[in-house]
Amino acid sequence: MTVVLDFEKPIAEIQKKIDELKKMSEDSGMDLEDQIRNFEQQAQDYKKELYSKLKPSQKLQIARHPERPKFLDYVNLICEDFIELHGDREGMDDRAIIGGLAKIGGKPLMIIGIQKGKTTKENLEYNFGMPQPQGYRKALRLFKHANKFNLPIVTLIDTPGAYPGIKAEETGQGAAIAMNLREMSKLNVPIIAIITGEGCSGGALGLAVADRVMMLEHAYYTVISPEGCASILWRDAAKFADAAEALKITSKDLLELGIIDEEIPEPIGGAHTDYNIMSENIKISVIKAFEELSVLSPEELKARRYDKFRIMGRFVE
User: Fold this and answer.
1) Cystine design at 197: which of 132, 134, 158, 185 (Cβ 3.0–4.6 Å)?
2) Extended beta strands in the chain, E state
């Protein structure tokens, strides 16, 4: 059963009415097609209007929807011949970050992403999409492997943040992320990073130093969660909606600010309503971006990548 978000309840009520009319028509033999069509059109019109005017706090809910596609869903629908590569070569295989060799549109590449679970058991296996230092070191190993064999890189990012536990700090969480930032900036191959759901703090940035940074329409990308921001600024996490508005976390805001390069449209209702359409939209954007980046030399890629991140940030005096 699909989870209904608070702001989607009017749509759910209309759908409930449609289902009741269909059952009544079936049970009684009455012709209710006109009424059903009217309600279906009403639901569709309301849905289009609603999703064209979402507030940042509402997009936040969609980005965190439990049925939203995960990294392995996209791999299965977008890639051919995926071969997972395990381990950081220091003794651990962090399951929150998964990566390997694959093909998209027949072209070989390295794809790496942050995986969340759909059940409690899966979330425990993937640590709720919160990587530990060993995960970032595994990603770095795969980056270097791709660089060695001249393979372009795609990263898919969906994380509430890097794992904040004591053990992660003891084993070098900050240093592992910082190392990724430095080394990604020096890679000779094209890199595409896509925020597919949550893109929070350094945990997201550790896979996002890329030539093209894209976001799904209802994803979010921010230096701190809105709840965390509200707790710091107002000592009240319940004011997360105000924080979400102030932080400029949506794809449209970040595209305007030059933080991301492209917004990838989602099906009406969010990515969770149609995995196939969402995956096809991502695939089209990835193939187009690689075609544009493939004509650049390693020196040009690195120079543009440096300039891209160097000029970020706007202020008014």
Assistant:
1) 158
2) 80-84, 97-104, 107-114, 153-159, 191-200, 212-216, 220-222, 262-264
What is the 8-class DSSP label of residue 234?
S
Delimit the domains of the chain by residue range: 16-53, 60-310
> Is 85:128 a contact under the CB 8 Å cutoff?
no
Interatomic CA distance for residues 92 and 133, integer angstroms? 10
Rounded Cα distance, 118 and 89, in Å: 28
**This prediction's pTM:** 0.92
**60-310 CATH:** 3.90.226.10
pLDDT digits (tens, 9 = 90+) for 169-186: 999 999 999 999 999 999
Phi/psi of residue 150, nearest 5 degrees? 55, 45
HEC string for 160-207: CCCCCCHHHHHCCHHHHHHHHHHHHHCCCCCEEEEEEEEEEHHHHHCC
